[in-house]
Design a protein that fits this description.
There is one protein chain. It is built from 18 helices and 12 strands. With about 575 residues, it is α/β, with parallel strands linked by helices. The chain has an 8-stranded mixed sheet with strand order 7-6-5-8-9-12-11-10. Strand 6, helix 13 and strand 7 form a beta-alpha-beta unit. Helix 10 packs across helix 11 and helix 12 runs parallel beside helix 13. The chain is elongated and about 130 Å long. The protein starts with 6 loop residues before the first strand and ends with a strand. About 35% of the residues are buried.
Length: about 575
């Protein structure tokens, strides 16, 4: 007799064979209860089929990880309804075989029960047990499949009815449902160079508009040039040129300035050309330097401190002789004449003002001498208007020829020698064995001056290796450009000339070597050692120097970035904590 036990269709899903369903209904037509039981069994199996299909479908939808392979200890194949059906069909087939053999050998299960009824009752019980077993087996397999899909081998999975939860699933859903984080600012430039990487992850972005990544790429380019990696340097420069903007923010302006300096270093002018000298020695550069001293409080306060030190050292002296090796456009000396007039003419009208003599030392002849005469005439007119007697002289000669006679020194004069942004432009032992810098200091020491003032930019730009020198220039000129934003309009003509002056200074310091490099700035510690070797001792800058500078600094409105650093023999002015200029006095 054919069995009516339901089985699984290997082709997928749950159901009955058509023949089995007809035989079941035919065998139990005489027994309505049996037919109803078979129909209920059919309905229950279909319902179970739908529930299991929905559960499997839900697990598929909840899978958020793409799996390339499975590493489960149990032999579960990848997601396939054929594999699951085949496994279940194998079990069902073995059970069917056992039941068929049992029904053939034992037609009666108990006494007093007809054969057909006994088989129907037996089939119903067996169907319920096997169906429960299949449900449990299928649930376990589906849970195992979900565990593999969610990669939860190391987490516990809890089951409550048909709900399956896990920590990883909750975290994943929370991430998917939460709004995405805002994208990082498009500011960084990944450096193509294989040298030193950017610190603080600054080279992890992708656009060249931020200062930090552009500055890091500038440093990487300088390193590549030092190592001879021309291709890397050229690739970096191509990116940096797109980030540079001579009229942009301070960082973009710095990038433009430094890119020009690096390009000039890679493509130097012909040997012996006078272009490097005219870059920082032309009349336009001198005029632009005067604008820089007026526009930047760091330079202005340094010159102011030097004037105050000269006034303090020469007070109550009827004759003051000032020897200046670089008067520029005469701005510092004009301020000094004003201070002398205020001290002696306005405050003490009964006392006659001292006789002031200014000697402008000019080692060259030609246009420089003509320009100095024009400046001297302006200073003389200013002194006459303020009631100060002034004599202006120009001395041409070499450093070796400087002495009391050539400098027109007279007995009874209070001699003051002013080095304002000059000594750093004089060659030292790293350029020539003659060492003009130390020779000049020894000559000045032999004059027995009442005071020597020294004002210089605070930057290690002389004997340091190129990469270090370039990094110093980036930090120094970057701070200068930022400070200019606080005192000068970006789009003004004066600002453009000032920045052109800074660009020439930077290019000469970075791109040139040997005698072609004129800009050779030092830090104060090196100046102190050099002055000490020449026989000078530091002069204490008291409150007569520091207090007026502090008062002038406090008068600057909306410029909290400028700072003063006081030491015993020097006064440093800077921007945001970085000292840019240092004024000191010596005897």
């Amino acid at each position: 007799m054919a069995s009516g036990f339901p089985g699984r269709d290997i082709r997928g899903g749950f159901g009955f064979g058509a023949g089995s369903a007809v035989q079941m209904q035919y065998q139990h037509r005489s027994d309505g209860g049996a037919v109803i039981g078979a129909a209920g069994l059919l309905k229950r199996s279909l319902t179970e089929m739908e529930r299991q299909q929905q559960l499997q479908h839900a697990i598929f939808l909840r899978s958020v990880k793409q799996k390339t392979h499975f590493t489960s200890p149990s032999p579960i194949s990848p997601i396939s309804s054929v594999d699951l059906s085949a496994a279940s069909t194998t079990t069902a087939s073995s059970i069917l075989s056992s039941l068929s053999s049992a029904s053939a050998s034992a037609p009666f299960v108990g006494q007093g029960i007809p054969n057909s009824t006994t088989w129907s009752f037996q089939a119903t019980i067996a169907d319920a047990e096997i169906d429960s077993e299949k449900k449990s087996s299928m649930t376990n397999r589906l849970l195992e499949l979900e565990r593999q899909l969610l990669d939860d081998e190391e987490e516990e999975v809890s089951i409550s009815g048909s709900a399956v939860t896990s920590n990883e699933w909750s975290e994943t859903m929370e991430k998917l449902m939460s709004p995405p984080p805002p994208p990082p600012p498009m500011a960084a430039v990944p450096s193509p160079t294989t040298s030193t990487s950017s610190s603080s992850g600054s080279s992890s972005s992708c656009t060249p508009s931020s200062a930090a990544p552009s500055r890091q790429m500038l440093l990487d380019t300088a390193t590549a040039i030092t190592e001879g990696s021309q291709e890397t340097a050229a690739a970096n420069l191509a990116v940096l040129k797109r980030a540079a903007n001579p009229r942009g923010d301070p960082d973009q302006r710095l990038t433009a300035m430094m890119v020009a300096a690096l390009v000039s270093r890679i493509n130097p002018v012909a040997p012996g050309s006078s272009i490097p000298l005219t870059d920082v020695c032309s009349a336009e550069h001198q005029a632009a330097s005067h604008l820089l001293y007026e526009a930047s409080p760091c330079f202005k306060f340094g010159l102011m401190a030097a004037n105050l030190a000269i006034l303090d050292a020469t007070k109550d002296n009827p004759k003051i002789h000032i020897v200046d090796f670089d008067i520029g456009q005469g701005g510092q000396l004009a301020s000094l004449i004003h201070a002398i007039s205020e001290r002696y003419v306005q405050r003490s009208p009964a006392r006659p003002p001292p006789c002031v003599k200014i000697t402008a030392v000019c080692p060259l002849q030609g246009n420089e001498t003509t320009d100095l005469r024009i400046i001297g005439d302006r200073l003389a007119k200013l002194a006459e208007r303020l009631g100060v007697g002034l004599r202006f002289r120009i001395v041409n000669g070499k450093i070796q020829e400087l002495n009391h006679t050539t400098l027109l020194c007279e007995p009874g004069e209070a001699l003051a020698v002013n080095f304002a942004f000059f000594l750093s432009r004089v060659a030292d032992e790293s350029v020539s064995t003659a060492n003009p810098r130390d020779e000049l200091l020894r000559r000045v020491k032999s004059l027995s001056p009442r005071i020597v003032t020294l004002v210089e930019q605070e930057m290690n730009g002389n004997t340091a290796p190129f990469a270090t020198r370039f990094a110093e220039a980036c930090a120094h000129f970057g701070a200068l450009l930022e400070s200019l934003d606080a005192t000068a309009a970006r789009d003004s003509t004066e600002r453009a000339r000032v920045e052109a002056c800074l660009a020439r200074k930077a290019a000469n310091s970075i791109a040139r070597e040997g005698v072609d490099r004129i800009e050779r700035c030092e830090v104060y510690g090196k100046w102190r050692a050099r002055m000490g070797m020449a026989g000078f001792n530091p002069v204490h800058l008291g409150s007569t120097v520091s207090e007026p500078v502090k008062l002038r600094l406090s008068s600057l409105r909306n410029n909290p970035g400028f700072t003063l650093k006081e030491e015993t023999a020097c006064l440093g002015c800077g921007w945001m904590g970085r000292v840019l200029t240092v004024a000191s006095a010596w005897r």
